[in-house]
Hints:
Low-confidence stretches: none
Strand content: over 45%
Oligomer: single chain
Structural class: mainly beta
Amino acid sequence: QVQLVxxxxxxxxxxxxxxxxxxxxxxxFNFYAMAWYRQAPGKSRELVARIRSGGEITYADSGKGxxxxxxxxxxxxxxxxxxxxxxxxxxxxxxxxELSPATRPYWGQGTQxxxxx
Length: 117
């Protein structure tokens, strides 16, 4: 069983920064990919950024140039550095981890990010 625990969310003013962390605990695997998704009120969950074990990184257009995803394979951890935050970045941010493309991913419980003055 794998648990994903997110941390680092909170309230920040527009233009500010936050760093989200996600650490996998329980059975230790080498994940095929880890990612961050977000879901704003009344909207569908959407990909923010994804990193594969080989280092390939994908960003949604909304975060390009502002967000940076990084991973630590030894710790089964993934991080999301978010800079120049905007009110439209307000959402619950979820960590996602895949053991392989053919298996259902694991999800964290989510961490709230609120960007407001």
